[in-house]
Structures are given as C-alpha cells and as structure tokens.
Write a structure and sequence with these properties.
Length: 434
C-alpha cells in the first residue's frame, strides 16, 4: 500500500515549500534559525507552530530535523502516551541520535497537563528539542511552562497562487510515477480551480489532484481528459473548513456579528454562508438575534420580532431553504440604523448595583402596607401618572443614593430622537403650568 500523495510529495527542502513567506522567505529570522551553522551543530530552540491543517507545519519540522542532523521522532497528541515520550528520551542515550532528538508533537492541544509536564522534563536537559504543532491557539491550550521555553510561530492558510505550483507538481509526479498509464490531457483552469477550492490546505489540493487523475475517463481518441467539470464535481465542499469546537468557530461568529454591527451586508452574508454551509444554523441564529437586540435595538425596535420570525421560519423549513429567511434577516440587521444605548444603559445600572450603590425603594413606589403607629406622616403619596396631562408627573423613582443617576442617553437615530422630542415637549409643558 502506497502512502498518500501528499506524503509521497512532501517537500525535502525549504525551497520546495510553498507559502509561509512571512516566516520562511529569504532573510526571514525563522529561515536563518534553522540554516545557521549553530543549528546544525546542535543549538536549536523549542518551537511551537500554530495554524490550520495542510499548510506546512509537519513538512517544516521534517526539514529542520534533516538540516540539523537530528533523529526525528513524531508523535500525535491524540494517541501518544507518557511512555511514548519517555521512549523518545531514551533514544538520546543511544548512538541512534548523536546530535540529539527532534521530537515533533502534532496536535499538542490534546495533551493533558501531566503529559505536558513530562514534555517539560525532557526539554529541560536540552537533549530533546521540541517542535509542537497545533491548530488551536497555543496560549489557551499549551502549559505556560512550555510556552515560556518555546517560540510560537503562526502558519497561515495558503493562497491560490501558493497552491497552483503544488497542484501542477502533483500532476507531473503522477505521470512520472505511472509512465505506463494512458496519456492525460488537462483542461485549462483545472489547477487554478483545485487551488482555489481547497480552502488554503495544500493536502486537500493534493488529494483532489489525485482523485481527478484516477477519475479521468478516456475519450474516443483513448486520451484521458481531466476536465474543469470533473474538478468541480470532486471539490464541491473542499473549501469549507469548520471546527465547531475550535478557535475558527468563534472567529467566524465574531466576524459575523461584527460585520452586521459594522453595517456591511456583504461580509455578513459571507460569514452566514460559512456557518450554514457547515450546518451550524443554531449558532448563526443566536448571533443574529443578539445583534438585532444589541446593535440595532431602539433605533428600529420592530427588528426584534422580525428577526425572531425569520429564525422561526428557518427552523420550520430547515436547511437548505433556511438560508432564505436568514439571509433576509442578516441584510436587514446589517443595513438597519444602529443603537446600543439601551443595553449600554443597563450595563451602567448593573455596574452601580454591583459596586454597592443601591438603597431603599422610595416610599412612594412601595407596595401599600401599614406605615407603623409611630410614623408621623403616614401615607404612600404616590402620584398616578395617568392622572396628569401627557401621562407624566415629576416624581422620584430611583433610590435616594442614586437620585441623580443618568444611565440612558437617547441615540441620534430617527426613532430615539422622536421619543426624545416627545418627552421633552411633555415635560416642558408640565413645567410651564402653575
């Protein structure tokens, strides 16, 4: 059984790698770190590579091991045990690793604290150099003591321009690997389509290239044709990258909400599509409802029942039709006037309460009850607002300690300014009367 194409074609030198020019371009510090004489003689820092799958983290670790003459030991955080780590350390005491061991730990976020402490012990002596990779933010998942002894580098998703050369190389390799196979012709645009459809993951691109090669059918002239239609059929959902439990899930939700708040319907629809195409309709609806209340609010109060109705309709019809009412609601929220004055006012009121600014409810507002025999001025003295012109009368409602507090300020939108003008007139008329 042969290894996957991505493994058979794994680059062997830095010059063969695609992308990551911000880290590995000519003159970049990380490139110099692994190519200096000091690195080849044994001096190499512990490294943590953070980024999405299929962007070169493992490949770069392999290249480092070769260039620094170290024994490469690869473990995966999902399956490795403490015993595996100790076995890697033991190799340092043999002739197998005269220049030390480079321990590559993939998916370090799955190691628990005890396992990470064992890692710490093995890198303290310097005999083992750790290169760990993770698709999650290492500052959330990696033990602080390991972080303090390592340097973190972020790997980014590859662009279409980065991946096209890798796709062309894959097709060439497949032809060289099977020279006896029928001739193959490739329609224009196939490599570019595969590169764009793989979502920045060169491993996915390699898989797609191999599938296209295996699926190409011979035409009448006996030549197998890799058409653009075939490439599209085999990469229908390859660009969708979504981990509901990972950082990207929350990054997409954050971008979705901020795009609606920032009144950009195009960006908001893009992130809605990323959520719905991954099947995460509940998260999309929750953020949509929150944004309608938090960011539109009193500027357009009717938006709340409208968005709620759209979410109810989405639940009723389900995906894929649910995209229709949700798209309507997202565009409505994104293009609606904005006001956060109500919830900001609540937060100010709650902050006062948490800081101890409270007090007895004014007697005028309390429920009617017996004043006590010693009360020299019995009675509630509450003024019923509807008994006064305009339904308003000057009266203290806040506790004495907060009598002058102002939490809510009218927003500058049409709806709140109309309410402000209304109450200014009512209260002005009341003050003018004797």
């Amino acid at each position: 059984m042969s290894a996957p194409l991505a493994e058979r074609l794994r680059p062997q030198t830095l010059d063969d790698m695609v992308g990551q020019r911000h880290l590995l371009g000519p003159g970049k510090p990380l490139r110099r770190i692994v190519t200096t004489p000091e690195a080849k003689s044994g001096q190499l820092p512990n490294l943590i590579f953070y980024g999405p799958s299929g962007v070169g983290k493992t490949t770069f670790a392999n290249i480092i091991a070769k260039q620094t003459n170290r024994l490469f030991v690869r473990l995966n955080g999902t399956t490795a045990s403490t015993a595996d780590i100790k076995a890697a350390i033991a190799k340092c005491d043999t002739l197998m690793a005269p220049n030390g061991v480079l321990l590559y730990l993939d998916e370090i976020q799955y190691f628990n604290k005890k396992q990470q402490q064992t890692l710490l012990e093995c890198i303290e002596s310097g005999a083992v150099t750790l290169i760990a990779s993770t698709t999650e933010n290492p500052y959330f998942y990696v033990y602080n003591a390991i972080l303090s002894r390592s340097t973190v580098f972020e790997f980014k998703a590859l662009s279409q321009e980065d991946i096209v050369p890798a796709v062309l190389r894959a097709f060439r390799f497949l032809r060289e690997e099977h020279p006896e196979a029928q001739a193959v012709e490739m329609e224009q645009g196939v490599p570019e389509w595969i590169a764009a459809a793989c979502g920045g993951d060169v491993r996915k691109a390699m898989n797609a290239a191999e599938l296209c090669d295996l699926s190409a059918l011979p035409e009448e002239d006996g030549v197998r044709k890799i058409t653009l239609a075939l490439a599209k059929e085999l990469t229908q959902r390859s660009a969708i990258k979504y981990d509901k439990e990972g950082d990207e899930h929350y990054d997409i939700l954050s971008a979705f909400q901020k795009s609606m708040r920032g009144s950009d319907p195009n960006a908001a629809l893009h992130y809605l599509a990323r959520l719905l195409e991954a099947g995460d309709m509940p998260s999309a609806m929750r953020r949509l409802m929150v944004t309608a209340c938090e960011d539109v609010g009193l500027a357009y109060p009717m938006i709340i029942p409208i968005v709620k109705a759209a979410c109810d309709a989405a639940l009723m019809v389900g995906l894929p039709e649910a995209r229709i009412p949700l798209a309507d609601a997202v565009v409505l929220v994104a293009t609606a006037p904005k006001s956060n004055r109500a919830y900001a006012a609540y937060d100010m009121a709650a902050a006062d309460l948490r800081s101890g600014k409270s007090g007895p409810i004014p007697r005028t507002l309390q429920n009617k009850h017996f004043d006590g025999a010693d009360n020299q001025n019995p009675g509630q003295f509450y003024q019923y607002a509807h008994d006064f012109p305009g339904g308003w009368v000057a009266q203290q409602y806040l506790p004495d300690v907060l009598a002058d507090a102002v939490y809510y300020e009218y927003g500058l939108n049409k709806t709140e300014q109309a309410a402000k003008a209304y109450w200014e007139k009512i209260q002005g008329d009341a003050h003018e009367k004797p």
